[in-house]
Specification:
The protein is an alpha+beta fold. Helices cover about 20% and strands about 20% of the residues. It has one domain (about 45-300).
Length: about 300
């Protein structure tokens, strides 16, 4: 079962990359949110072991902003797509986890014991960080047990219940009052951000991922309705039982995630990414499958 739910019910194709024609300007609002963790005092980007501040979508959240439809500045975001922007080289690890050799509950696992394998493991954990709130319980339990080097915290169900209840979702993450073509989307997009390999040995690796998440209701009768938040998460991984598994997570030395000038836009140019990450030091890279094109859920919400 593929449990990556881009919207409920009815699903959709999250691979579409055509820019939508939006109708509403962004109403950007920013608030600083502390990252809270569920493994010791650490902070997680992975929803599978989170304790969330009420109202948050997840740790590393820079504050929710109304996701905007196309604007002239955002419309040029794809202009640099064919080249590596100044200051940010393109890496060889993909955010989609193309090196994975198996799946657990429909999500990529089984990454090689290489630098790219560690980066892809972290990228997938970031990309799927809200999926666990929308899995069947059995799938969620299997995935949690597989991604941790040690036993995950048991109180995830309580935080998951709060998250679903605040969004009108049932225990499996589907809208309790769907009606017509209304769908709830909750996708994170590392391919729209960047990563940094902080350290690596064949036994341990630390990877930081900066990425946006898009959540909200897609209603054909009400264009818009999505919120965007930028996040930053650091994954400490160990090579355990032939895979990269989480030993701890946190924000590292990073505090609030960098926020683009138009914080309602989850898509920013490669050049702007380099500028935003420059204060956070060197070593940042684009994922191999990095893009500067709006995700399919935004196309659907603003058509």
């Amino acid at each position: 079962m593929n449990v990556r739910i881009d919207w409920e019910p009815g699903g959709g194709n999250s691979s579409g990359r055509q820019a939508p024609q939006g109708r509403r300007p962004a109403t950007a609002r920013r608030k600083n949110l502390l990252l809270l963790g569920a493994v010791g005092a650490g902070v997680l980007a992975l929803a599978g072991a989170l304790i969330l501040t009420p109202g948050q979508d997840g740790p590393g959240d820079s504050g929710k902003n109304a996701a905007a439809g196309p604007t002239p500045s955002a419309g040029t975001a794809g202009a640099n797509q064919a080249s590596d922007a100044p200051g940010l080289p393109r890496g060889t690890a993909s955010a989609a986890g193309r090196l994975s050799s198996r799946t657990v509950a429909g999500l990529p696992r089984g990454f090689p014991r290489t630098q790219d394998g560690a980066v892809e493991a972290a990228g997938v954990l970031a990309a799927r960080s809200l999926d666990m709130y929308r899995m069947q319980r059995a799938d969620r339990d299997r995935y949690q047990k597989d991604i941790y080097a040690t036993t995950p915290l048991a109180d995830f169900e309580e935080s998951g219940n709060r998250w679903r209840s605040s969004r009108g979702l049932d225990d499996a993450g589907a809208l309790t009052n769907a009606g017509g073509d209304r769908r709830y989307t909750s996708l994170c997009h590392p391919e729209l951000g960047a990563y940094k390999l902080e350290s690596y040995t064949p036994a341990d690796a630390t990877v930081t991922v900066w990425f946006p998440c898009i959540t909200g209701l897609i209603d054909p009768n009400k264009p818009g309705g999505l919120e965007n938040s930028w996040r930053i998460a650091q994954f400490a991984l160990s090579w355990t039982n032939d895979d990269w598994r989480i030993t701890s997570t946190g924000s590292g030395t990073y505090q609030d995630p960098p926020n683009p000038r138009d914080s309602g836009q989850p898509v920013t140019s490669y050049t702007e990414r380099a500028s935003l990450l420059q204060p956070l030091g060197t070593g940042w890279r684009l994922f191999a499958d990095a893009t500067a094109v709006r995700p399919a859920e935004m196309e659907e919400a603003y058509k």
